Design the sequence.
């Protein structure tokens, strides 16, 4: 797993794996008769489980704090698995198959289910709310890849705060069209505070749109 | 191209191509000695060019109208190339290589450059603005795949309006942290009207956040 984390899969050989594990090459083949592809998929499955643990967060406190906590863990994972994370998600990799794609899609689905459960809707989440959450998750992945590609700038806590703000913005925009999302936003607001992410976003957005009276 | 549009690449054979083109299989091989992979890449390059033409839009009128026009053309392309579009972007396809990934990334880059040019910043666009635009483009791709997967619901004009609103929301949230983006938003506002997407979004967002006075 540490080899696949720091190198693209095509740059990891079975000899490297045997050496890192301190065992012989035949022993690696005994446990992984499918060779590198099987080894890679096993490592990916294990990383996917680790990643899904990142999303678990108790359903207490402001929604933005819960999201920040989960994002902190997710971004730490991205930071640690940089080369492997990029290789996996950028596509066109030699080890990419419908099986690896399914593992990655499973992680995305788990992330979406976690977020939707925190939104605490009475009815099962509708199409618009689901779409909003899935789009944001894709956007977070894209931002993570760009962050890795751009020498890990800005610092992680800035990136995390900005991603939380993007989530709030997307959710509020969907709330304008979707009653279920609007109810979730209204339910979340009382737990948010002026010194939290929503307060800071609200205060900084107002001066930007102060000249928009003609739209109302 | 029409075969790759309606079927996944693994379901298109060279015999199918020869038959659809009304020529012999040897003639197809004469022009495409690399076989199906070369044919697929040629079709993809041609589709990428067609897609890049979708983004061209004169730099006049409200920003949201320009974005709506380009999105209408993009979504019509998605609608027409459904199976091929999904196969290409979902990953794990047998014909996916670093070359096909590069072609798709080229389309994404072109889309980002078009949008950034319409934002009319004085200085070259900074990291935050670029990241916001790139994240929205990824989110549009994700929404397109989900739309294809969910029996093309909601209707295209609803999806388009909602994607425009998501863009406005993401841009305004970034403007809260980034002076260049704030300047672009302020410059765009006077051209927007109360009966356009920004007006409709603003009026419908206000009641949702009316209980947020404690955040200010």
Sequence:
């Amino acid at each position: 797993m540490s080899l696949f984390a720091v190198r693209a899969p095509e740059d990891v050989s079975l000899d490297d794996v045997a050496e890192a594990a301190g065992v012989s090459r035949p022993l690696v083949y005994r446990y992984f008769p499918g060779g590198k592809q099987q080894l890679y998929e096993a490592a990916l499955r294990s990383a996917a489980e680790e990643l899904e643990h990142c999303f678990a967060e108790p359903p207490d406190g402001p929604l933005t704090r819960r999201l920040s906590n989960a994002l902190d863990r997710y971004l730490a994972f991205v930071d640690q698995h940089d080369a492997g994370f990029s290789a996996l998600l950028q596509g066109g990799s030699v080890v990419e198959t419908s099986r690896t794609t399914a593992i990655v899609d499973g992680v995305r689905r788990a992330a979406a289910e976690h977020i939707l459960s925190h939104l605490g809707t009475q009815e099962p989440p509708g199409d618009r709310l689901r779409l909003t959450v899935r789009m944001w998750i894709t956007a977070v992945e894209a931002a993570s890849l760009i962050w890795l590609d751009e020498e890990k700038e800005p610092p992680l806590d800035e990136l995390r705060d900005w991603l939380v703000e993007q989530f709030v913005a997307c959710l509020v925009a969907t709330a304008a069209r979707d009653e279920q999302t609007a109810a979730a936003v209204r339910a979340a607001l009382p737990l948010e505070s002026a010194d939290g992410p929503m307060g800071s976003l609200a205060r900084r957005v107002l001066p930007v749109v102060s000249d928009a009276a003609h739209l109302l």
Summary: Chain B has a mean pLDDT of 92. The domain at 48-192 of chain B is CATH 1.10.357.10 (Tetracycline Repressor; domain 2). Chain B touches chain A through 63 residues (CB under 8 Å). Residues 127-149 of chain B form the longest helix (23 residues).
